Amino acid sequence: MKSIQVKNLYKSYNQENFVVKDASFQIEEGEFFVLVGPSGCGKSTILRMIAGLEEISKGELYIGERKANLLSPSERELSMVFQNYALYPHLSVKENIIFGLHVKKVPKKERELRCYEVAEMLQLTNYLHRKPRELSGGQRQRVALARAIVSRAPICLMDEPLSNLDAKLRAHMRAEIKQIQRSLGITMVYVTHDQTEAMTMGDRMMVLKDGEVQQVGTPLQVYNKPNNPFVATFIGNPPMNIQNGTIRGGERELVLEGMKPYKLKQDYGVHFPERIMVGIRPESIHLANENSAADERYIVEVKNVEILGNDTLVSFLVGTKEWFMRLNGQWYITIGDRIPISFDFNHVAIFDEGTGELLKAPESREMFSLRKEAVSR
Ligand SMILES: Nc1ncnc2c1ncn2[C@@H]1O[C@H](COP(=O)(O)OP(=O)(O)O)[C@@H](O)[C@H]1O
Ligand SMILES: [Mg+2]
Fold first, then answer.
1. Which of 69, 261, 305, 349 is deepest in the core (most CB within 10 A)?
2. What is the pLDDT of residues 73-115, one digit of tens each?
């Protein structure tokens, strides 16, 4: 298994503007590393530069100990899975799976052995003689996966491999890919625009915007302490609510657009600039009750309600912004209701309005754990 190191990586397709700017990151051996960001932010470009399919404009790439900028794709010893699977339509499933082994001149017996092993692992044994067109989307996806695994390359690169699948199959394949990666111990670089995949699959993720790295961290680090409002709203669904505001009266009073002023009760040990942005996660907003302090109660008018079975999502306008709150359980709330809400200011994030920098993270949440005796690992 191998690590990957990228130092000050740049890419320009036209010698004018850079679509990847100064990206630096390290991927550990055996790690599941997710590149996530909106469409067009440079994820595939970075992946293709690691693969050797795209020239590096500036910067350094190391695969294992070896500088890899100028290595050919095959010298980099990695396998790749694309969104469109890129299966050969005229070849059978089996031939598709072992195609790369032919090219690498792996002996026939070994090819067969590896093919059956991986087919077993991915439940493709009964389909080995079919053509790709005779398979469902999920099965085709598995063939693409099998072809990558059979190569036994220490690094696997995947570019949005699940985007063509329906929601249920996607959820299933998320778990499957993660388990296979674990059991083989491969180093995985996985590209997606889907924050759910990044949260659920990655050991760590790197969030990108306009070719620039916004944050690298474990899913919970990124969720709990987003570096800026972009990350805060990109990771998490529904997104973190963000509101512009001002701090007045020498850090004593916070005024959010569309809300009554709030007296800050605590010294947060940070000097806040006058103009800030406040962020609060939907699950940190509650229905106010008699116990809520009067200055932490806000009356809002319900704009939309979605009952998700176990949770109820309620949205309302604060100033001109739509906010979301997530309530546990099933609630009789209808559009147009005026309801009292409250939230604890210890649970808000505060960002600098100018630079976007995180000045105060929400208070850390409780991480639940089982008693030691209850777990065997
Ligand atoms: N071969 C290419 N030639 C010119 N521009 C490209 C090429 N490939 C990608 N781009 C541009 O580079 C930017 C990043 O693209 P890409 O890496 O494909 O983004 P993502 O995978 O995050 O959606 C986009 O603006 C895209 O239009
Ligand atoms: Mg892409």
1. 349
2. 989 999 999 877 789 999 999 999 999 888 888 899 999 999 9
Residue 139 has pLDDT above 70, yes or no: yes
**Structural domain spans, the chain:** 4-224, 242-360
- The pLDDT tens digits of the residues spanning 332-344 come to 999 999 999 998 8
Task: Pick the atom of ligand 1 nearest to 42's CA.
Answer: 17
Quick one: fold of 4-224? Rossmann fold (3.40.50)
Query: 242-360: what CATH class?
Result: mainly beta
**DSSP percent split of the chain into helix, strand, coil, nearest 5:** 30, 30, 40
For residue 209, give the ligand nearest its CA: 1
Mapped onto helix, strand or coil, the DSSP state of residue 199 is helix
Q: Whose CA is nearest to atom 16 of ligand 1?
A: 42
Helix (H) or strand (E) holding 197: helix 195-201
Q: Considering only CA atoms, which residue is closest to atom 6 of ligand 1?
A: 13
Q: Which of 158, 177, 38 is nearest to 86 (CA)?
A: 158
45 alpha carbon, closest ligand: 1
Most ligand 1 atoms within 8 A of CB, residue of 9, 13, 20, 194 to mutate: 13
Under 8 Å between Cβ of 204 and 218: yes
Sign of CA dihedral 142, 147, 153, 159: negative
Cα–Cα separations (whole angstroms), residue 334 to 259, 323, 325:
22, 16, 14
pLDDT score of 251: 63
Nearest CA to ligand 1 atom 12: 19
Is 48's C-beta closer than 6 angstroms to any atom of ligand 1? no
Residues 6+ apart with CB under 8 A from 27: 3, 4, 5, 33, 187, 189
Between the CA of 12 and the centroid of ligand 1 the distance, in Å, is 10
Containing 101, the helix (H) or strand (E) segment is: helix 93-103
